[in-house]
Amino acid sequence: MQLFMRKAFAACLLVGIVFAASGLKVDPLPAPVSLNAVTGFRTHSQFLVFSFMGLGAKREPDAITAESYVLDLNGAGWSAIKPVPGTTGRIAAMAASLRSNLFVLGGYVVDNHARGSAVPDVSLYEPHANRWLREADIPVPVGDAVIGTYQDRYIYLVGGRGNSGPVSDVQVFDVEKNKWSAATPLPGAAVFGHSGTLVDNTIVYVGGATRSTAAEGSRYVLSSECWMGKIDHHDHNKIQWSKLPNHPGTANFHIAAGGSEKDRMIYFAGGADAIYDLKGIGANSKPVEPSPVLFAFNLHTGKWETISENASNPLMDESTLIVTSEGLLVVGGMGKGQQVTGAVTVLPKVAKGK
Fold first, then answer.
1. Residue 332 near residue 34, CB atoms below 8 Å
2. Gyration radius from the chain CA atoms
3. Exposed (0-12), middle (13-18) or buried (19+): which is 296, by Cβ within 10 Å?
4. What are the residues whose beta carbons fall under 8 Å from the beta carbon of 115, sequence distance 6 or more?
5. 194 is a domain residue
6. In a 3-state reduction of DSSP, which class is residue 59?
7. Domain containing 9 — which CATH number?
8. The domain containing residue 98 runs over which residues?
9. Is the CB of residue 187 less than 8 Å from the CB of residue 241?
10. How confident is the model over 252-303, as pLDDT tens digits?
11. Fewer C-beta within 10 Å: the chain N or C terminus?
12. DSSP for 203-252, written as a single string
């Protein structure tokens, strides 16, 4: 594997110009998967995409996998890497890249009755050595949290679902000190399955599932709240939150999101307008379908923009998309008819005609 990584990096350097000038044609994953943890690894003209764990095509607890893969966007297909440590696979974990390393955090292990338990695990992957290391546990174990990085040093976990339900915690991991701290909590409802990321010093998140206050009915209901948080330049644990207008479209659960500092944009794709289970079935026992709306928050203007109201191959069951110069990548996910896919879907960054 160490030899493969060296070859992959060399290939990126050699054909990076060709890649930038050509359209993206991306190989599918070796197997269909959703609720996988996805992150990109970029250094100069090197660009790799990683997919960790997730839920397979059967959409049953025994279809949850620990398998992990890396993709060289410059030509080589997906290759297996050493699986994330643990006795079983997880779903809805979070992943980030910092300082030439990858981090996989939290998520749920699921029993045979489809009951999930959030884990505190933080695993650091060193690509050059194909080696995993264990880092300090998450203080409040969560899955389905929004994740972002700041100053190439801090990882933020925003909200998520813990073992007692959705949380308002914003947990900050200092990779330099291998230490956690608590930042200003969420100002609105505690949520999980929400969507967003961190660009520069700005966190944007939307939607999610929150605990119902009704005496009867579903345990959780959708939130349509949208929030923006500004991290204080002098204190990374201090966040000033402000409410945003509603975003375009009706989806508020498991929307894929990713940000670009160069574009000053945060992109959102797919997701669903209902809360659903592993099989894609809502609380009303009806199948849930993904939203075709593709939209973005423009950090220059502070406004929402609709990129497409009818994107092809809409997906849900993903939390992350990868922003490239050629478009937005969604790795796996659940498509129409509750079908789990291994495809890497390429979406536009701008509205047609612009």
1. yes
2. 19
3. buried
4. none
5. no
6. coil
7. 2.120.10.80
8. 1-130
9. yes
10. 999 999 999 999 999 999 999 999 999 999 999 999 999 999 999 999 999 9
11. C
12. EEEE--EEE--SSSS-SEEE---EEEEEEETTEEEEEEEEEEPPPSSS--
Residue 344 lies in a domain: no
Please state, in angstroms and rounded to a whole number, the distance separating the CA atoms of residues 222 and 220: 7
Structural domain count, the chain: 1
The whole-angstrom separation of Cα 224 and Cα 209 is 9
Assess contact for 190 and 159: CB atoms under 8 A: yes
Q: For residue 91, how many other CB atoms are within 10 A of its CB?
A: 25
- CA atoms within a 13 Å half-sphere pointing along the CA-CB vector of 232: 9
What are the tens digits of pLDDT across the range 342-353?
A: 999 999 999 876
d(CA 257, CA 337): 22
Q: Which tokens hold the place of 198? A: 């961190």
**Tokens 């650091």 correspond to what residue?**
124
- pTM listed for this prediction: 0.92
Structure tokens at 85: 């440590």
User: Residue 78 falls within a domain, yes or no?
Assistant: yes
Give the pair of three-digit tokens for residue 270: 């797919």
User: How many helices (H) and strands (E) would you count in the chain?
Assistant: 1, 29
* 8 A C-beta contact, residue 183 and residue 172: yes
CA atoms within 13 A on the CB side of 35: 32
Q: At residue 35, what is the residue type?
A: L
